[in-house]
């Protein structure tokens, strides 16, 4: 299905489009589960990262999520406004903002089990090993990040 050398190929032959459209479809699948929780997908992945490791700096969280601070800060402000987390200046360095889950933010993890399991259930029903996909996409992401640094 590869495009001939020197020609861009069709839309369906583009890896970037396959990833983009799969991502859009997965977001649609998550949407009903997340809307019950009052979350957007970016808010959900932010909480996933904090459930994994709480009390981090905005910079650490941005690196973990591959988000720039100017994208992450408004998202954190919205999560703080609804009581899921707090943002506080680090007393050792006022330039550093630390992010911590609230009790409500921690409790939301239990309520998010439907969203957490929906893609895994779908993959199991299709006989798809998600670990293989996750590893391959993570490796591709790292290669793309390295290539972007070189340009």
TrEMBL record:
Positions of the HTH marR-type domain: 12-142
Gene3D superfamilies: Winged helix-like DNA-binding domain superfamily/Winged helix DNA-binding domain
Record has Transcription as a keyword: yes
GO cellular component: cytoplasm
GO biological process: response to stress
UniProt subcellular location: Cytoplasm
Coiled-coil intervals: none
Keywords on record: Cytoplasm, DNA-binding, Transcription, Transcription regulation
Domain of life of the native organism: Bacteria
One Pfam family, short name: Staph_reg_Sar_Rot
GO molecular function terms attached to this record: DNA binding; DNA-binding transcription factor activity
Cross-referenced InterPro entries: HTH_MarR-typ (IPR000835), MarR/SlyA-like (IPR039422), Transc_reg_Sar_Rot_HTH (IPR055166), WH-like_DNA-bd_sf (IPR036388), WH_DNA-bd_sf (IPR036390)
Major location (coarse): cytoplasm
Record-given protein name: MarR family transcriptional regulator
């Amino acid at each position: 299905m590869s495009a001939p050398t020197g020609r861009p190929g069709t839309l369906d032959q583009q890896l970037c489009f396959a990833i983009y459209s799969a991502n859009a479809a997965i977001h649609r699948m998550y949407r009903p589960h997340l809307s019950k929780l009052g979350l957007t997908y970016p808010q959900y992945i932010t909480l996933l990262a904090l459930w994994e490791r709480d009390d981090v700096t905005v910079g650490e969280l941005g690196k973990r999520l591959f988000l720039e601070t100017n994208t992450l800060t408004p998202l954190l402000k919205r999560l703080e406004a609804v009581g899921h987390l707090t943002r506080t200046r680090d007393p050792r360095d006022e330039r550093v903002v630390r992010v911590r889950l609230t009790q409500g933010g921690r409790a939301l993890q239990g309520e998010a089990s439907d969203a957490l399991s929906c893609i895994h259930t779908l993959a199991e029903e299709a006989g798809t090993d998600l670990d293989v996909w996750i590893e391959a996409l993570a490796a591709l992401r790292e290669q793309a990040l390295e290539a972007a640094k070189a340009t």
